[in-house]
Amino acid sequence: MRLSEGGGGRTRSTVPVPGGYTWGMTSSFEDLLPGTARALLHRVATAQAEGRVPSLVGAVARDGRVLWEGGRSCVDGHVPDADTQYRIGSITKPFTAVLVMRLRDEGLLDLNDPLEKHLPGTGVGEVTVAQLLGHSAGLAAESPAPWWERTPGSLRPELADVLGEKPALHPAGRLHHYSNTGYTLLGSLIEAVRGVSWEQALQAEILDPLGLTRTTTRPVAPHAGGWAVHPWADVMLPEPAEDLGLMASAGQLWSTASDLCRFAVFLTEGDERVLRAETLREMRTPAVPPEAGDWDSGYGLGLQLVRRGGRTLVGHSGSLPGFLAGLWVSVEDGVAAVVLANATSGPAPGVIATDLVRIVADAEPRIPEPWRPLPGIDPALLELTGPWYWGTYAYGLRVLGGGGVELCPLRGQGRASRFRAEADGTWTGLDGYYTGETLRVVRRGDGSVSHLDLGSFAFTREPYQPGDAVPGGVDPAGWRGL
Hints:
CATH architecture of the largest domain: 3-Layer(aba) Sandwich
Structural class: alpha+beta
Strand content: 15-25%
InterPro entries: AmpC-like, Beta-lactam-related, Beta-lactam/transpept-like, DUF7586
CATH topology of the largest domain: Beta-lactamase
Helix content: 10-25%
Organism: Streptomyces lavendofoliae
Largest sheet: 9 strands, antiparallel
CATH class of the largest domain: Alpha Beta
Number of domains: 2
Protein name: Serine hydrolase
Number of strands: 23
GO molecular function, one term: hydrolase activity
Number of helices: 12
Strand order of the largest sheet: 2-3-5-4-15-14-13-12-11
Keywords: Hydrolase
Shape: globular
């Protein structure tokens, strides 16, 4: 039985199992301890066996490169590797979101723009671009029957066919309600603003710059075939692979574990040819509050967010008939994992991928780069370092690379933030409470530093020092005992 077209990757070894069957297995690794590599392969093998899927492949990237891949198959000689294509379903959505954020960064639209401004006539035009990206537009999850994932996109030639008679189910902006139709609208928005098809924009603006040569809108060999596995018997039947038409921007893509690892690295580090790291940080920020009782997951702008074992992971899951996919990355650990399978149901690739991240991050924590002194520093900037006081709260300011600074509490809880240097001598907050806020130095008439102004908060060199610029003034009697 062939489970893939054009081959299925290399086979490193085969493992006999009771009953006379032979299960294909492949695994490769570099710079991993043998125990770590075996734990990764064990997780993938267990997922394929217990999930009852024809084939499954996993890959792990760390610090920008793929360092492990492993696959399992029910047919010897057709074991998938990191170059085997699978359909990735809703992992298409982060690609679409990146295209929209590029339009925002170029000034061609604003996230608060109503859809109607750029794509009139949909009937839901008052919802905003940001609401569509974060699934808070209140739109229906699916298009009207027949089931769009298993029927040709030609059955829905117009947006009205995708949206149906009652596209809005909830007030816009109030809650998270996952919507495939919303991402269909975003695909059409991209075409309206960019003036080219969604597929052309994807190719020119993401796939080509990032070198994702094995990510396509239609399968290219070697690729896995999609299968349905009977829930009560070990038998299978093939699933159709339909072209989704207008709904392509919600789930059309095929890709490989290798390409998706490269995409995961981009989602954490950015690439000036596609999107800045700052914009990707914005995409990784929760767009709406989580649902009641669901504090371990959320959604940003095109990216899912989860907390697992004390780690925050960003990425996306995906499914279409015959395929399951998961991509997760821990930005803090610099570890990304991708899992792809060719069955309609069975394992949970998203859960497996988070396990692969955990295995590597726990067993082999990231080794920090050597400390190195800065190549040079402005004496005026060096003068600002050290302790500062907001009221009686003690903070420390230190210099970062590139002229940036970091302001952190010296003890207890507090509002720590990093700041990017601007051309006018100010700094802009990058994270935490002060994201987007401006930090500036306020000087006296003689040029000496009076205080730091951070969003109207005055940070002084001493706590409530008489004569300092303390809002409300300082009691002239000064500090006293009981």
